[in-house]
Every structure is written in C-alpha cells, then in structure tokens.
Amino acid sequence: MQCNYFDHGRCRSCTLMGTPYADQLHAKQQRVAAELAAQVPDGAWRAPFASHESHFRNKAKLVVGGSAQEPTLGILGRDGAGIDLRACGLYEPGLAATFDELARFITTAGLTPYDVTTRRGELKYLIVTYSPDDELMLRFVLRSKGLLAKLRSRLPHLLESIPRLRVVTANLHPEHKAVIEGDTEVPLTDEVALPMRINGHTLMLGPQSFFQTNTAVAAGLYRQGADWLSDDASGSVWDLYCGVGGFARHLLSPGREVVGIELSADAVHNARAGLPEGARAQFHVGDATLTTDALPQPAAVVVNPPRRGIGELTGFIERRAPRTVLYSSCNPQSLARDLAALPSYAATHARLFDMFPQTSHSEVLVRLDRR
Ligand SMILES: C[S@@+](CC[C@H](N)C(=O)[O-])C[C@H]1O[C@@H](n2cnc3c(N)ncnc32)[C@H](O)[C@@H]1O
Question: CDD domains under this entry (predicted)?
C-alpha cells in the first residue's frame, strides 16, 4: 500500500507502510510463532487469516485541529498543530465518505476546535464508527457542556446532510489528558446503539463499548472460535472480557449455555439488548479476574483480554479445569506469559488474525486442551 501522508512524513503511524502485504503477513507469522515457541508447537499453527491491506478500519478517532473555518481532521503534530488526514487509506470507504461533510458541519455550526497548547476551544475529537449496514455512530468529544445547546439545535441539519448517521452523542472530556474520551456520554439522537451485523448476528454497539476495529477479520475470528469449540457443544461456556458479546453470540447452540463477564456496564447492557428471543445466554458486569466459584462449572472458557493479559485468572482456570480454553490476544508477550502459567493445558491450535495491517500489531487465537 502506498500513502502520501507517510511518504511526505506527515504521519508515521503505519510503521509497515510500503512493505508488500504478503511480506508483512509472513513476517508477523514468523514473529508470533517465535514469541510463542515455548508454548505453541509448530504443528499447531494454521495459515494466517489475512485482511484487506487498505480500507479495513471501521472506526476513526479524528483529532480536530485548526479553526472552525478551516478545521483539520486527523492527528496533532509535535508542535500541537492539527494535521489533516482525511484521505487516509485505512478507513472503510463508507466511513471516509463522511469526513468532508463533518468538516463542513464544524464550520457552519461554528464549533471551535480545542487547542492543546493554549487549552482553549471546545471540540477535541470526532469518533466515528461504521457498521456493515452502511450506518454510522458519531461522537463529539468536548471539553465542556458549552457546545451542547448548539449541537442540539444543529442536529437536524447534520442528520439531513449525513442521513446514514444513526447514533450521535457528545462525550464530555474536561481534563487535559492523553486518554481521548471522558466518562460522561450525552445522547443527542433517540438511538443510542449502532447495530453491527456480523456473520448474521446483530451486536448492539454503545458509544463507550469496545468493538474490534476490522469487521471482516473480526468475523473470521469469531467464526474460528465457534468452529474450534464445536466439539464442546454442551454444558456451560464462559466468554470472559466479552464486550458486547462477539464470541458469546457465535457460541450459542442448543444444549449450551453461554455466560459473559465484562467490566463495562454499557457493553453488558448492549450484549443483553442484542440477544435473540430465547437465547440461553447471561451477561454480567464484573471483573473477570475476580470471577467467583458461584458460576456454573464451564466445559470451555473463552478469554479476550486487553493488552495486559489475564494475570491471576490463570490460577482460577487451572482450578476450575474446563476441558478447553480459547485465548484471543492482541499482545503475544502477555499471551506467552499467561500460557506458561497454564501448565495443565497444551496449545493444539493457533492462528494469526491480521486485524491491524500496516502495523506490527497482531491478534492471535489459541486453542488449549487439558492434558
Ligand atoms: C479486547 S476487548 C474484547 C471484547 C470482546 N471479546 C470482543 O471481541 O469485542 C477486551 C474487553 O475487556 C473488558 N475488560 C477490561 N478489563 C476487564 C476485566 N478485568 N474484567 C472484565 N472485562 C474487562 C474491556 O471493557 C473490553 O470490552
């Protein structure tokens, strides 16, 4: 993939830009296999699951810079000035197609971008998520409530100019911090969740919930998870760190009950809301690492933690001794450490899912069977 922003030094986020995609994938596979060599035997690896090398991102986190008259949507340079990256080739086309309209809205509504050096202005980021049904969720990240009235009064114009907008919210982020969003979310539309249809399952995505950024690769990951657990079709299956229920929904089957645990109340609310009638699934808000003995004995456990991995949960899995564990990880280092802390399990299947082309990041799914 070629990128003018990269070539001209305006953005260096994609560290593998310019490397032929087949070479990227091969190198990633070699690296994760080497990093996991002590835990995953060579024979366990399946062929990597490839992505489109461009136009794969379903979510844009755009720093708003410049002025209301001439906003930039992209990143900030070292000097704190906005760099416009509207033509970035990573975004899905239906997502990128909204950027010019959003910039026009900033101008016509007079939304002043936040300036990190003077700490003046209001609009910090636009976070836009694109669904497989060509619908969008838009979040305005604001320094204060100052723009809320204006946003509310201009909303009909915005919805008219981008009719595919299904959910619009304002996120209040008063602090000057590296994290890009605050805790308070103010809905501006009646709809507060974006339906994300994936492999025929509709997952409801709320503004503050996690969703995999590459929808096509996420679809492959969930299908693979369901396939690798198809011989454990009865009993209870836990989906720990379940988010809005991506794995859980793919694991539903007659004779099986799925229990999801997730820290985000917003995600659990939407995981429940998206369930089909009669589905044997329950979702609980909680810390997966503190999961108690009160839950039914699992036949299988799925874990999909943040980068830090599952930590002390390994001891819990050892004690509860499910037959099978599926571990989906975005960090080979914490994955290697956690697999080493599960001595009663052997890695029998492993696969790289290239969720993040053009970068060295990788998602790896491993199936562990009790020895
Ligand atoms: C990598 S995401 C995976 C989400 C989901 N499995 C999916 O495919 O969309 C990790 C999730 O773990 C949640 N999380 C973080 N720490 C947690 C904890 N200690 N206990 C439960 N969930 C946690 C996050 O809110 C996030 O939804």
Answer: AdoMet_MTases
pLDDT in tens, the chain (371 residues): 999 999 999 999 999 999 999 999 999 999 999 999 999 999 999 999 999 999 999 999 999 999 999 999 999 998 989 999 999 999 999 999 999 999 999 999 999 999 999 999 999 999 999 999 999 999 999 999 999 999 999 999 999 999 999 999 999 999 877 789 999 999 999 999 999 999 999 999 999 999 999 999 999 999 999 999 998 778 899 999 999 999 999 999 988 999 999 999 999 999 999 899 999 999 999 999 887 677 889 999 999 999 999 999 999 999 999 999 999 999 999 999 999 999 999 999 999 999 999 999 999 999 999 99
How many angstroms is it from 152 CA to the middle of ligand 1? 32
Q: CA-to-CA distance for 228 and 262, rounded, in angstroms?
A: 22
Q: Which of 125, 159, 191 delimits the end of a domain?
A: 191
Centre of ligand 1 to C-alpha 261, Å, is 8
* CB contact at 8 A, 267 and 246: no
Give the whole-angstrom CA distance, residue 236 versus residue 256: 6
- Residue ranges making up the domain that contains 332: 4-53+214-370
Same domain, 72 and 44: no
**Annotation-wise, does 212 bind a ligand?**
yes
Integer Cα distance of 250 and 247 in angstroms: 5
Active site residue 11: no
Q: Is 212 in the pocket of ligand 1 (CB under 6 A)?
A: yes
Does ligand 1 lie within 6 Å of residue 238's CB atom?
no
